[in-house]
From TrEMBL:
Keywords: Membrane, Transmembrane, Transmembrane helix. It is found in: Membrane. Belongs to the UPF0057 (PMP3) family. The keyword Transport does not apply. This is YqaE/Pmp3 family membrane protein. InterPro entries: PMP3 (IPR000612). The chain crosses the membrane at residues 26-48. One of its GO terms (cellular component) is membrane. It comes from Mariniflexile litorale. PANTHER family: HYDROPHOBIC PROTEIN RCI2 LOW TEMPERATURE AND SALT RESPONSIVE PROTEIN LTI6 -RELATED (PTHR21659), UPF0057 MEMBRANE PROTEIN ZK632.10-RELATED (PTHR21659:SF42). Its main location: membrane.
Length: 51
């Protein structure tokens, strides 16, 4: 993972997921988790972008 993706994972999780995976179900899940709470969105972004 690049430093930019790591910073975006923390600050703007849906944007980081979008940059790595584009528009799709992963992005929708990231947006929903971030709306529920910031921490679930961050965790999801690290899990998805860590692959």
């Amino acid at each position: 993972m690049s430093l930019i993706i790591i910073i975006l994972n923390i600050l703007l999780p849906p944007l980081a997921v979008f940059m790595k995976h584009g528009v799709g179900t992963t992005l929708v899940i990231s947006i929903l988790l971030t709306l529920i709470g910031w921490i679930p969105g961050v965790i999801h972004a690290f899990l998805v972008n860590g692959k």
